[in-house]
Amino acid sequence: MTVSEKFPAGWHKAFVTLWLGCFITGMGYSMTMPFISLFIADLGHYSKLQISMYSGLAFAMTFIAQAIVSPYWGNLADRKGRKLMCMRASGVMALTITATGFAPNAIYIIVMRFIQGAFSGYINNATALIAGETPHRKSGWVMSQMMTAGTAGNLVGPLLGGVLSNFFGNWLGGVWGYRIPFFITGFLMVLVFLGSTFLVHENFTPISREEMKPMKEIMHSLPNVKLIVVMFFTTLLVQAANMSIDPIVSLYVKSMMPNSKNIAFVAGIVAATPGLGTLLAASKIGHKMDEIGPLKILRLGLIVGAILFVPMALTHSPWVLAGLRFLLGIASAAMLPAAQTVLTLNTPAESFGRIFSYNQSFQAVGSVFGSLMGSTISGLFNYATVFWTTGFTLLINFILIIFFSLRKSPNK
Length: 412
Fold this sequence. Notes:
The chain is mainly alpha-helical. It has helices spanning 11-32, 36-41, 48-80, 82-100, 106-118, 122-133, 139-172, 176-198, 215-221, 225-245, 249-256, 263-292, 294-314, 318-332, 336-345, 352-380, 383-404.
């Protein structure tokens, strides 16, 4: 084993700490976000239109801020290190989420969400940090495991948030049922900040602003810059595909079982099944990625995902939809982690922060674009058209990957 293949001292402790940090970050986001509209409704005498508008802005502001600010944080990460960025993101998230719990009105929540997005990036920087510390022979598995952290948090968050809201709502009454989960999330993010500060060591030598290569020069020096750019757009399109369905899942389920009294329960299952599929498959797919290369796995994930959207658009059974979305979750474990692994294997260490921050910007744009696409298409046409469009998007992505990865590469 060469020196470059050895795990650095303290790698496993850092990996576990960052994995838990990503889990708590994902859980904290999903624990509070589903109840934002209910929280806003209790803060004033808002009309239905105002509640919908303020809720949409509260959701979108985080991603808009991420897309704008991420390149700046990426530049700073390459000069100061990813650990400092993890500390910054978790510390500010602890403050903003706690402050949101004291919200007096909807505008206050929207402003806090924008600030949170502007200083966010824990999962992105934790992934970049551990990718830089990991031997290339294990990159695929590590990227998959880091994805499972956020996915697992997103699965646990809504359930925990619902339990806490109901419990404290019955105990304290009124709007406090929605405030308490924000305070609990803020406390958990303080623990993430402390863990990232004292339990994570990064082998990084600070670089002065003068010594840094300009991003333009780095992009020109990359062996396959077109492939890197395609990975950015892959992140955008895959994230858009994931988010396009979220706004309409419960409505689509309701259209399949209009007279049922268990719509919320069934919709919850349908919404959760992709995350469960990703969680169960990520480790195996990660190992396979290290064996045969991330591009092959990415191509397979995209074409399988595109195909799965066809029966989703045709089915009239919510249980069949749930099963197909479970399979989509397995395919998803072969998409974003594979794209991130391609970036890891084709990016010099001194530009990790900037490359991953640009990738985060594309992911944030994908979140906004996907949500708007799903809502707009379902409003203009029908729910099934959203699935047809999303599947076609993944097919286009697959064709792009085929076209730009024809060049012989050890990472194919």
